[in-house]
């Protein structure tokens, strides 16, 4: 039995920085699984459409300034675009807080250098997989409390022993969108085999992606599903753009992995400048 098997959902406050595709789906899942909104703090950048979505969920009372979230929440999930992390530079944070960075491509040490507290990195599959309770996540370095929260949300957790595997995991969680864009099964299988030889977890993620792909009654539903998986400037977008340009499936996946690494280098550079 884990040391967090007491009712963690009533024992902690959770902060959500960013209420976009991912932030909203995590909030909905937390609430759906019994997390009380009194213990939830949410921030966004100020987009009126985002406020409307928060209102629709009955969560206006949860809206908080980032400063307050970093002081009051016990666990703070950062769900903004990687490029926006700079906006958190210099933020003051109370002691004993845990930050969970969900920013694709950003190494845990980079985030830690900004928030200056215990930090782990989490990669998670797209919003629809979370809502359908078919999502997967990886946490590096593994943190038991975060693991408990994710298990409460019925997410399957993949073990990551080396942070470099995060780039491959990140590309793996983009597979549902990539499989909807590519229909040549031979090219798909060749690519999975090639990357799977380098990292066996990728084959597992492919099997997961095939299982969770929904059937769409209309093309517009498929387009909306894919849109929710795409963060502007992110890894899924890099993969889908490559496929749309007619590149091979393996090329698109390699571009996804490379893009995840590039975000990390770009952020390292801009933080040092
Ligand atoms: N979408 C996915 O399937 C997925 C999966 C795994 C990981 N991720 C990662 O999750 C992160 C978010 O992705 P997303 O697709 O949810 O992006 P998104 O839809 O563009 O949402 C970003 C959110 O961040 C808010 N924001 C920006 N700067 C902020 C600040 N300083 N303080 C508070 N909120 C701020 C924005 O506010 P406004 O609404 O006011 O503009 C928006 O609500 C990315 O780093 C991505 O790599 C996404």
Order of strands in the sheet with most strands = 2-1-3-4-5-6-7
Q: Rg from C-alpha positions?
A: 18 Å
Fraction of residues in H or I helices: 40-55%
In total, the number of strands is 7
Low-pLDDT regions: none
When the domains are counted, the total is 2
Q: Major beta sheet, specifics?
A: 7 strands, mixed
Task: Give the CA-based shape.
Answer: globular
Question: How are the elements arranged and paired?
Answer:
Blueprint lengths: L7 H4 L2 E4 L3 H12 L7 E4 L4 H9 L9 H7 L2 E4 L19 E4 L6 H8 L2 E7 L2 H5 L4 E5 L3 H9 L3 E3 L6 H8 L2 H7 L3 H14 L2 H12 L6 H11 L5 H10 L4 H24 L1
Parallel strand pairs: 1-2, 1-3, 3-4, 4-5, 6-7
Antiparallel strand pairs: 5-6
Structure description:
The protein is about 50% helix and about 10% strand. It contains 14 helices and seven strands. The protein has helices at about 10, 20-30, 50-55, 65-70, 110-115, 125-130, 145-150, 165-170, 175-180, 185-200, 200-210, 220-230, 235-245, 250-270, and strands spanning about 15, 40-45, 75-80, 100, 120-125, 135-140, 155-160. A seven-stranded mixed beta sheet has the order 2-1-3-4-5-6-7, with helices on both faces. α9 (about 175-180) packs parallel to α13, α10 crosses α14 (about 250-270) and α13 crosses α14 (about 250-270). The radius of gyration is 18 Å and the shape is globular. The N and C termini lie far apart (about 45 Å). Bound molecules: NADP nicotinamide-adenine-dinucleotide phosphate. NADP nicotinamide-adenine-dinucleotide phosphate binds near residues 79 and 102.
